[in-house]
Amino acid sequence: MSAETSIPPPRTTRTELPDAVKTLLTDSPVGFALLGPDGVFDTINQCLAAVLGRTPAECLGRTPVDLLRESGEHDAAAEHRTWLDGVREEGRVVRGRYRTSAGRLWELTWFPVTEPDTGEDRVALIAVPGVEQDAVHDGGPAHRDEQRLRALLQAGNQIFWTAGPGGDIQEDCPQWRAITGQEPERYLGRGWLEALHPDDRPRVERAWDDAVLDVTPFDAMFRVRTVSGGYGHYRARAHPIMEGSRPAEWVGTLADITNEREADELRRRLNQQLSEAAMRTARLQKATSDLAEALTADEVVDAMSEIGRSGVGADHTCVVLLDRDRLRLHTIATEHAHRLPRSVFPLDHPDIAARAIADRSPRLAAGPAQLSELFDGAPEVAELVRSTPERAWVALPMMAAGRPIGALRFAFSTPREITDEERVFLEALAGQCALAIGRATLYEQEHSTAEELQRSLLPEELPEVRGVRLAAYYRSGSQNVQVGGDWYDAFPLPDGRVAGVLGDVMGKGIPAAAGMSRIRNALRALAFSMPEPADVLTGLDRMFAATEGMDQVTTLVYFVLDPVTGQLDLSNAGHLPPLVVAGNAGPFLLDTEPDTPLGISSERGHHKFFVQPGNTVALYSDGLVENRKRSVDSGLGELVDVASSAPPEAVGDPQQMLEYLVESMLDGYEQDDDVTLLAVQLPVIDSAPEQ
User: Fold this and answer.
1) Residues near 74 by Cβ (< 8 Å), separated by ≥ 6?
2) Alpha-helical segments (H) within 528-647
3) CA separation (Å) from 515 to 3, 120, 239, 384, 641?
4) Residue 282 lies in a domain
5) Domain membership flag for residue 479
6) Residue 244's CB: how many other CB atoms inside 10 A?
7) Is the separation of the CB atoms in 562 and 503 below 8 Å?
8) 312: enclosing H helix or E strand
9) Do 349 and 292 lie in a common domain?
10) How far is CA 596 from CA 390, 593, 599, 603, 609, in A?
């Protein structure tokens, strides 16, 4: 390696040179020029301009080929083009000779130069008088000027070096000594490889051997052990200088790219952290959304299990809840999860969830040894490890109103550490889980109460009325939602008629069920004192206005049927029209214009129909004809079509008819609401035989 000990500051623009270079350009007997990517002179000194028979101003912005052609030196122009193409296309150092028209011989050296600020590839040209060729090899003034120019052309963080034709370093390089602390006797030959990082050394040595053997450019990045004891990142490039078909030497640069590599690594880490943070945020948002839809504790655990797998790779997830006495813990796990040795255990049991609750702080164990240490070698830990595939654990307390209500427990099938980022994510997840469990607990309590209340309001059995057949059907849609306000009732009146009603209190839960109860009881009381259905609904309007909120919309159909005459009197408070299934004609909807729902002041309509023997009148809730995929109007049309296809045995039996309607109407649809039906039929009476 060969380089000067003093390197000036790098250029700030592509045409601006350091003052030291400018001095050399002015006074040096060596010709010098810089050519831009377009091949034109960006910089040229007086000496080289004179070689071309021009002034520097006449050369700037022109190519050497164009200048030689204008001078009639076409052969020289062709040679210059070949030399320039060799540098630009192959990236190698090229030497040549040029004899001026006056007969003076010049030795030319073309070599690539990389702009340190922009990375732009350029070409430098140095011309040494041919008469001083021997002095060049003897280290004369022209040689020193050439070496100085080469050194000054390098960026501040670049080192210029040379090697023999066999690839061995033969000359001192003060910059290499300053970086590595190696003395010349240590780094000459191939000794410089000892300063490389052990992991990089074999790769770089192979690449350098291949380049020397094949006489191809060398380009490698590696780590160098510095005087401070650390490692810096460097990039070495070298090109062979050819004499005929054989390399005469190798010329190369060594650039410090430590800052670039550190910046790249920092960007990589930041991008990775941002990506992981974005992923955790997305997972937490999804968890919040999933947990918001979970209505029961089991659904919360199912959601947490999926989040645990995708978020931190947990193999087992469960929620451990304190009982009302706050003395025992109950484990809720997914259906397919492995079972813990104990699903119910006291608060002082040596389990990581119990410890997290007792300490009100997250508890982690990266392996069985840590878990055993956490509980002072309790035998329950060995039992857990023996009976389950769990090998790492994390438990986070779930807090509500400042008090623990349980813990979120994750387990892994292999030992693992929880990172700080994962811990932050899990703590946020535990907070969301606590809210979801609180909602689920309240929902389950309200659901149980409302479901029990609603069940108590529906008749256990329908009354038996002579000359009339009654049937009812109820299918709850409350598996995943709160109980609704559907209800029905039927009862005989003192005058021998039978009354029936089917209604829907809009809303869910206890308020809807309680409203249904009040309306049902009021209707029964009014029915025994008011014979006409319209009068009963008018009385209900007054009661509704006094006791119910206007936001609790209630619709119903109330009818009274005379079994003797078949007269059916009906009043409709905003409900769907009854369906009539005739034994000897097609089914149809009763032509009743519905009035307003209860509580909205209006004159109640009175509708009178005659039910023929064998005909069935069916009342139904909107859950039968309306869902997320079907509108009411479409559902009503389908209801008539389905009834028209009923088999004879269903037409003759009201209970079978209701079951047939439900199964047919819900086929292919997901039930998302209660389905309630009430039917009344006048049976066909066989005529007495003739005497």
Assistant:
1) 68
2) 533-547, 632-644
3) 97, 82, 93, 51, 34
4) yes
5) yes
6) 6
7) no
8) helix 297-312
9) yes
10) 62, 10, 8, 9, 21
**Residue 628 CA: distances (Å) to CA of 47, 622, 625, 634, 635:** 90, 12, 11, 12, 11
DSSP for 497-532, please give it. -EEEEEEEESS-HHHHHHHHHHHHHHHHHHHTT--S
Full residue range of the structural domain in which residue 627 is found: 461-681
Check if the beta carbon of residue 470 is closer than 8 Å to that of residue 611: no
Is residue 338's pLDDT more than 90? no
* Model confidence pLDDT, tens digit, residues 154-197: 444 567 888 999 999 888 888 898 889 989 888 899 999 999 99
97 and 180 together in one domain: no
Q: Kindly provide the residue ranges of all beta strands, DSSP E only, lying in 54-104, ordered along the sequence.
A: 94-99
Joined tokens for residue 349: 């049991």
- Please count the residues of the chain: 691
Sequence-distant (6+) residues with CB within 8 A of 361 are 397
Specify whether the backbone of 140 is left (phi greater than 0), alpha (psi in -120 to 50) or beta.
Answer: beta
Which of 404, 426, 282, 482 lies closest to 290, judged by CA?
A: 282
* 275 secondary structure, DSSP code: H
Query: Is 173 found in the same domain as 285?
Result: no
Among residues 414, 449, 484, the one where a domain terminates is 449
Task: Say if residues 525 and 519 touch (Cβ distance below 8 Å).
Answer: no
DSSP-assigned letter for residue 623? G
Question: SS3 for 206-222, per residue?
Answer: HHHHHHHHHCCCEEEEE
**Same domain for 185 and 115:** no
Q: What is the CATH number of the domain that holds 521?
A: 3.60.40.10
Q: Looking at this protein, which amino acid is placed at residue 324?
A: R
71 occurs within a structural domain: yes
Categorise residue 406: left if φ over 0, alpha if ψ from -120 to 50, beta otherwise: left
Q: Is residue 552 part of a domain?
A: yes
Token reading at 518: 């009040």
Is-contact 98 51, C-beta < 8 A?
yes
Alpha-carbon dihedral angle through residues 426, 428, 430, 433, given to the nearest 10 degrees: -130
Q: Residue 119 belongs to a domain with what CATH number? A: 3.30.450.20
Q: Which residues contact 532 (CB under 8 A, 6 or more apart)?
A: 560, 569, 571, 606
Structure tokens at 323: 């009982």
Asked which of 416, 449, 482 is the last residue of a domain, the reply is 449
Q: Are residues 520 and 546 in the same domain?
A: yes
For residues 477 and 428, state if they share a domain: no
Instruction: Tell me the pairing of strands 616-620 and 579-581.
Output: antiparallel
**Spatial distance between the Cα atoms of 226 and 622, rounded to a whole number of angstroms:** 82
Supply the pLDDT for residue 454: 67
**Residues 98 and 112 both lie in one domain:** yes
Tell me the per-residue pLDDT of 552-574, one tens digit each, with 9 for 90 and over: 788 999 999 999 999 999 999 99
Whether this model's pTM surpasses 0.90: no
Q: What is the pLDDT at residue 586?
A: 86
The reply to whether 183 and 147 lie within a common domain is: no
What residues contact 576, with CB distance under 8 A and at least 6 apart?
557, 594, 620, 621, 622, 625, 632, 636
User: What is the model's pLDDT at position 136?
Assistant: 43
CA distance 421 to 583: 72
Q: Hey, is 129 helix, strand or coil?
A: strand
The mean per-residue pLDDT over the stretch 227-246 comes to 88
Number of domains in the chain: 4
CA torsion sign for 329, 330, 336, 341 is positive
